[in-house]
Design a protein that fits this description.
By secondary structure, the chain is an alpha/beta fold. It contains 7 helices and 11 strands. An 8-stranded mixed beta sheet has the order 3-2-1-4-5-6-7-11, sandwiched between helices. It has a 3-stranded antiparallel beta sheet with strand order 8-9-10. It is globular. The structure holds 5-O-phosphono-beta-D-ribofuranosylamine.
């Protein structure tokens, strides 16, 4: 049987890049038949860039501040991604809102990880919000990115307990450990066509997901 074509991934980052690292590590294990063609950061000193260098992945800095509006920034991202010949996008702690210029260029081919159990707590400060609301659990979600911020269909979630003396930092660490499990798994599934996006829904093994998958179901 002939080997299927390698999936070509572009990763957008803004920070430490631990999620990027988890995806790199999983690909190095041979999962998903994928290659990260480029990493782009909108923050010049993001540690994620060092991770890209260490993995010999071409990396670029595109500063949103140098563009007069979102659309021109997004066009610059697209130009670099298209020059790198990518066919799917992984948002890994990318802290800029992406609008239709970008999203419509890669229909159904953009994954995002968000540190909450969506639809709870879209946007920022999710750990603080969960603590302030007195929640007993929190977690993270991988979803297809759409033009609705943190609003695209969710594929896979993982939950963690919240303990009495938790602060936002401790909780963030607990959630991040789960992010590093569920994000590489979803990237792998996208590469294997086990998940796809169609008409506003996420599909898993050709079935529309009525509710997001949970980590306990798959491990
Ligand atoms: C993660 O919690 C991610 O979900 C959020 O920002 C954090 C980035 O972490 N969007 P890293 O840069 O992948 O280490």
């Amino acid at each position: 049987m002939s080997k299927s074509a390698t999936n070509k991934i572009g990763v957008l980052v803004s920070g430490g890049g631990t999620n990027l690292q988890s995806v790199i590590d999983n690909i190095h294990l041979g999962e998903g038949n994928a290659e990260i063609k480029c990493v782009i950061s909108n923050v010049a000193d993001a540690y994620a860039l060092t991770r890209a260098d260490d993995a010999n992945i071409p990396r670029y800095v595109i500063l949103h501040k140098e563009f007069s509006n979102r659309a021109s920034f997004e066009l610059a991202l697209i130009k670099t991604l298209d020059n790198s010949d990518v066919d799917m996008i992984v948002l890994a702690g990318f802290m800029r809102v992406l609008e239709s210029t970008f999203i419509s260029h890669y229909p159904g081919r953009i994954l995002n990880i968000h540190p909450s159990l969506l639809p709870k707590y879209g946007g920022l400060s999710t750990h603080q919000k969960a603590l302030e609301n007195g929640d007993s659990s929190h977690g993270c979600s991988v979803h297809f990115a759409t033009t609705e911020l943190d609003g695209g269909p969710v594929i896979l979630q993982a939950s963690v307990p919240i303990f009495e003396n938790d602060d936002a930092e401790i909780l963030a660490k607990r959630v991040l450990e789960k992010e590093h499990i569920i994000y590489p798994k979803c990237v792998e599934w996208l590469c294997e066509n086990r998940i796809y996006y169609k008409e506003g829904r996420a599909y898993f093994d050709n079935e529309p997901l009525k509710v997001p998958l949970q980590l306990e179901q798959i491990s």
